[in-house]
Amino acid sequence: MAKSGGPREKSGGPREMRVERTIAVSIHGRYLVQVPEETAAFPVLVAFHGYAEDAATALERVRQIPGSHRWLVVAIQGLHRFYRRRTREVIASWMTQQDRDLMIVDNVDYVSNVLAAVSGEWPVSGVLVFSGFSQGVATAFRAACRSELRVRSVISLGGDIPPELDRDALGRLPTALIGRGDADEWYTAEKYASDQSRLADAGVRVTVCQLTAGHEWTPEFSRLAGDFLAHVK
């Protein structure tokens, strides 16, 4: 009898063994940019969409934030595209559980490359804020905490902070705005409370908002995000 977990030998046949490997490849990502009319150096607001959304959705969402027209808005689309079953609309995801650690590295590098391309094409001021909704919250925090650039803040709604980001990593952020709808079944009250505690423990100045809503970005949150952005320096 073959030992559990090892190569298995069929009776009367050759010995068989399945191995799994990963390999790095080059892939093209997609991002959208909303450029202000002014000619001065722009602050940059980077938007990360939720699961089964796209860059256009993220762009339109943050454009509802009052004052966002003064920011260079960059909406980054997840690398893993697929079709919405009924409409055949192209949507995306940031990752799955498979090869998760590798996907995290890919996403962080991807964001870094986008920011390098953006700063090479438009004048930027050095003020950088990330915004995430739902699944995009995790990518926003991971990219912000691991960025070589100084990220001034993360604005998040409907998603929890990744568990692997420790106190030192989170402490790289000066401020954060985190929001939750009181009827949100995905981002629970327990996760929301834990995220507040983790950020405060890391020395981050945290602004919180509990919305009368479900798992959604509301006009009220846009207004609160606008007030928050107005004080980011």
Q: How many separate domains? A: 1
Please report the distance between the alpha carbons of the first and last residues.
67 Å
What oligomeric state is this?
A: single chain
Spatial extent as radius of gyration: 20 Å
Helix share bin = 25-40%
Assign the CATH superfamily. Alpha/Beta hydrolase fold, catalytic domain
Uncertain ranges? none
Architecture overview:
With 233 residues, this protein is of the alpha/beta class. The chain has one domain: Alpha/Beta hydrolase fold, catalytic domain (Rossmann fold). The chain is built from six helices and eleven strands. The chain has helices at residues 55-63, 100-121, 135-146, 167-170, 189-201, 219-229, and strands at 8-9, 15-16, 31-34, 42-48, 72-76, 80-83, 90-93, 124-133, 153-157, 175-181, 205-211. The chain has a seven-stranded mixed beta sheet, with helices on both faces. A two-stranded antiparallel sheet has the order 1-2. It has a two-stranded antiparallel sheet with strand order 6-7. Helix 2 crosses helix 3 (135-146). The longest helix has 22 residues, at 100-121. The N and C termini lie far apart (67 Å).
Per-chain topology:
Blueprint: E1 8-9, E2 15-16, E3 31-34, E4 42-48, H1 55-63, E5 72-76, E6 80-83, E7 90-93, H2 100-121, E8 124-133, H3 135-146, E9 153-157, H4 167-170, E10 175-181, H5 189-201, E11 205-211, H6 219-229
Parallel strand pairs: 4-5, 4-8, 8-9, 9-10, 10-11
Antiparallel strand pairs: 1-2, 3-5, 6-7
Helix pairs in contact: 2-3
Describe the structure in brief.
This protein has one domain: Rossmann fold (3-Layer(aba) Sandwich), CATH 3.40.50.
